[in-house]
Amino acid sequence: MKTKTYNVIVILICSLFIMSCNNNKPKWKQLFNGKDLKGWQVKIRNHPLNDNYANTFSVKDGNIQVRYNNYGDFNQQYGHLFYKKPYSAYLIGVEYRFVGEQAKGGEGWATRNSGIMIHGQSPNTMTVEQDFPNSIEVQLLGGNGKDDRPTANICTPGTQYVFNDEIIQEHCAKSTSKTYHGDQWVRVEALVLKDSLIVHYVNGEEVLRYTKPQLDPVNGAKEGKPLTSGSISLQSESHPVDFRKVEIVNLEKYITDKAKLTEVINELLTKK
């Protein structure tokens, strides 16, 4: 009986140890609950904060849907759906697809175009007529059926960054991703490490890497204020798009331990 009791105790201790280790592992947190827009704020150009004009953002069939059925002309009413809190060091994953036809009056460049805005300004500080938050945009593009159109590019409303030791002021730059035509689901991830490093991934493959995200410089300076944290938002740019997953892993507690940070990131990127 003693041996049996001892074995049971050992099994319990081992089980508790394994559970404790698993609990300490970083896990994806769902920013979108699959049911409603709780925890999110809407800002659409020419409309006040949280005026979800024409029901642009809604939830249906477990997806965040961006639609323009109740618009007349799009009229450059660019919108953003902001998560309620800012982040600084994290890995964000978004699964999206483009559907249907572009809204009447949408710009040609906005066809099958959306984005994940990171290190962005607070929606509370945006003016009513402001089109985009100052931010780094992980640009999401869908194929048009014929041309090369990579996704997870970078655009820079009110910002700049460093690539190959050079400050880049060009508004948009392409990633190395392939083109995704049609209405297929695509997963894009962005690794954001304060003001040091940002990496874009498409379906698990790295497609773009750059450093030192910063605001546009002022008073003739070459470099701007470093972006160490900020809002996260999803775009409405005139083409219908669905988001079925928006999830994040907060990496703040690993940021000072490079070896552990690398281990955690590698583990997260291999688990889909």
TrEMBL record:
<feature type="signal peptide">
    <location>
        <begin position="1"/>
        <end position="20"/>
    </location>
</feature>
<keyword id="KW-0732">Signal</keyword>
<dbReference type="GO" id="GO:0016787">
    <property type="term" value="F:hydrolase activity"/>
</dbReference>
<protein>
    <recommendedName>
        <fullName>3-keto-alpha-glucoside-1,2-lyase/3-keto-2-hydroxy-glucal hydratase domain-containing protein</fullName>
    </recommendedName>
</protein>
<feature type="domain" description="3-keto-alpha-glucoside-1,2-lyase/3-keto-2-hydroxy-glucal hydratase">
    <location>
        <begin position="27"/>
        <end position="248"/>
    </location>
</feature>
<dbReference type="InterPro" id="IPR010496">
    <property type="entry name" value="AL/BT2_dom"/>
</dbReference>
<dbReference type="Pfam" id="PF06439">
    <property type="entry name" value="3keto-disac_hyd"/>
</dbReference>
